[in-house]
Amino acid sequence: MLQAIMTNPGIIEFREIGKPQPASDEVLIRIKRIGVCGSDIHVYHGLHPYTAYPVVQGHEVGGVVAETGAKVTGFSPGDKVVFMPQVTCGECYPCRHGMVHICDNLQVMGFQTDGAAQEFFSVKAEKVLKLPATMSLDEAALIEPISVAVHSLSRGGNIKGRKMLVLGGGTIGNLVAQVAQASGAEAVLLTDISEYKLNKARECGIRNVVNPEKEDLSLAILKYFGPDKADLIMECVGVQPTITQAIVTARKGSTIVVVGVFGRKPEVDLGLVQDRELSLVGTLMYQKEDYERAIELAASGKLSLDPMVTQRFAFKDYPQAYESIEGSGGDYLKVMIDL
């Protein structure tokens, strides 16, 4: 079978390897879709702090069951599935206390261990979730980033009836805003400096958007939320300007959830964090219940997912997917690899 491997930043090569055989507790998945995510792009640029080369990418994945191991039940060939890409130790403090997603020895498929950028991929059955037969393969590959959005919102507490500022209209910011609306948020305001991404947000049903390069963000917050401002701020970009905006525009005592992956370390005004008694909260990946909620939301039709797939490439054109991203000027959301 064919496998894509990133041998160095910016270099993807293909090689023929043997088709894996599932162990007794594994599911062999025929990979059908791979989404390219922001963290993958950091790896492509050599900026991901926790990835070495060579690496086989592929963690946003949709596929169908090809075979099951002898001890596996609940799956049949042809079932549409996704998998959770975390590899955990089960022994550290987080693992022993129900926080496997922040395992002290966490490895993530596609970053610290091989991912699914290949025709077949074998995964332990406990990490595999079955999808409704009606769900498309594109939607399947979006379950992972939807799960990121679901978990990040849970870090900010109950969403229902709250006013939320989402900084960043890329795939994750868009999904955070959509999941918030679907979860009963009173009002959601999404920001981005890309008119393309703001238009995509509108197309996906995100009602309130603003470009902070064209409109004063502080005034926009008052316009959409009133003098009490945002109850919760979601930083979904991972760059200096947006974390600064989050802290400067936060009301006293509010919560900021850091969702974006920072390729370069930012400067944070901890004086304002301290003076305004802000809660600065991190979020990493997801747990199984987040995946289950993501599948439920996608299957319910409460999310608008089709407009998010903006480019598509055959597996053999994997390198061209990154070249397209590089040349897009930021005018893209989800780039999908078809197998």
TrEMBL record:
<dbReference type="InterPro" id="IPR002328">
    <property type="entry name" value="ADH_Zn_CS"/>
</dbReference>
<keyword id="KW-0862">Zinc</keyword>
<dbReference type="GO" id="GO:0008270">
    <property type="term" value="F:zinc ion binding"/>
</dbReference>
<keyword id="KW-0479">Metal-binding</keyword>
<keyword id="KW-0560">Oxidoreductase</keyword>
<dbReference type="InterPro" id="IPR011032">
    <property type="entry name" value="GroES-like_sf"/>
</dbReference>
<dbReference type="InterPro" id="IPR036291">
    <property type="entry name" value="NAD(P)-bd_dom_sf"/>
</dbReference>
<dbReference type="Pfam" id="PF00107">
    <property type="entry name" value="ADH_zinc_N"/>
</dbReference>
<protein>
    <submittedName>
        <fullName>Alcohol dehydrogenase catalytic domain-containing protein</fullName>
    </submittedName>
</protein>
<dbReference type="InterPro" id="IPR013154">
    <property type="entry name" value="ADH-like_N"/>
</dbReference>
<dbReference type="InterPro" id="IPR050129">
    <property type="entry name" value="Zn_alcohol_dh"/>
</dbReference>
<dbReference type="GO" id="GO:0016491">
    <property type="term" value="F:oxidoreductase activity"/>
</dbReference>
<comment type="similarity">
    <text>Belongs to the zinc-containing alcohol dehydrogenase family.</text>
</comment>
<dbReference type="InterPro" id="IPR020843">
    <property type="entry name" value="ER"/>
</dbReference>
<dbReference type="InterPro" id="IPR013149">
    <property type="entry name" value="ADH-like_C"/>
</dbReference>
<dbReference type="Pfam" id="PF08240">
    <property type="entry name" value="ADH_N"/>
</dbReference>
<feature type="domain" description="Enoyl reductase (ER)">
    <location>
        <begin position="10"/>
        <end position="337"/>
    </location>
</feature>
